[in-house]
Amino acid sequence: MATMRQIRSRIRVAKNIQQITKAMKLVAAARLRRAQDAVVSARPYAQSIRDVIQSVAGAAGDVRHPLLRRTEGEARNVGILLITGDRGLCGSYNTNAIRRASELAYDLEPDQVRFICVGQRGARFFRNRGYNVVADFGIQTTGTTFVRAQEVAAAASKLFQSEEVDALHLVYTRFVSAMTQHAENVQLFPLDPQSDGADSPNIEFEPSAEGILEGLLPRYIDTLVYQAMVESRASFFGSQMTSMSSATDNAGKMISTLTLSLNRARQATITREISEIVGGAEALK
Q1: CA dihedral 58, 62, 66, 69 (to 10 degrees)
Q2: The pLDDT of residue 265
Q3: Which region holds residue 168: left if phi is over 0, alpha if psi is between -120 and 50, else beta?
Q4: What is the rounded CA–CA span in Å between residue 189 and residue 218?
């Protein structure tokens, strides 16, 4: 049985942990609000440009573009753009994204997969398992910027256009609410245009379909990557806020349990001392 000194030490440790987790919860809640605003702002534009690109690519017919390159049969080499966090203490956020990326790479040899990682957790995980991480980017503490998204998108486009990979997937965490986030996989390259030609609009291109796609496709990729990054940032803070809230509650329960144990130990000590005094008095009679 633990002594009263040991129990008091455990109570102090639990209180310190509770203060830290409570502070992290408040910080995550404040940052989550700003991250949610960025998600709400990015989604409509990303959906609109996705619809436009699919319609134009479907109506353009056999237009050739490096980002539309397709290979016959299944992709032999695969690229994965993975977005995780730089830090832990965020529940299952990093684990779910890494698991989804691992599912993509499961049937392939390590030398058939190329990773581009945003966030050190994902980069460290796959490097330790022998995978080739061709580029990694840290998480901006001040918030996701479109310039950083363009840097990441440029690295992904270069990997695909150099024909090192036949397909490139984007793995990120979609924000639903502070309690719910879903790890998702989107094929970034090659672009999948509308397959139903009957639904494609009759578009006349000026000056040419190649010129229009040349201007729109890089912007489309930048927007897709930016949306994934802001979604992942909001998911990180939502998961962190939830996990730190649970940790704070658990620390409070532990403090209550330890305090009860301390009171019982103190009462047992007092009872024992009284018994010894009474026994000594009886012995002197």
Answers
A1: 80
A2: 87
A3: beta
A4: 12
Give 63's pLDDT tier (boundaries 50, 70, 90).
low
213-222: burial string, b at 16+ Cβ within 10 Å, e else = beeebeebbb
Which residues are known catalytic residues? 90
Please compute, for residue 102, the number of CA atoms within 13 A of its CA located in the half-sphere on the CB side.
13
Q: How many C-alpha atoms does 77 have within 13 Å on its Cβ side?
A: 14
Q: Indicate if the pLDDT at residue 172 is higher than 90.
A: yes
Q: Residue 41: CB partners within 8 Å, gap ≥ 6? A: none
Q: Kindly report whether the global pTM for this prediction surpasses the value 0.70.
A: yes
**Model confidence pLDDT, tens digit, residues 110-158:** 899 999 999 999 999 999 999 999 999 999 878 889 999 999 999 999 9
Domain extents in the chain:
20-194+202-243
**Extended beta strands in the chain, E state:** 78-83, 113-118, 132-137, 167-175, 181-189
List b or e across 24-33, with b for residues whose CB sees 16 or more CB atoms inside 10 angstroms.
bbeebbebbe
CATH number assigned to the domain covering 20-194+202-243? 3.40.1380.10
Q: Among candidates 125, 174, 119, 122, which has minimal Cα distance to 141?
A: 119
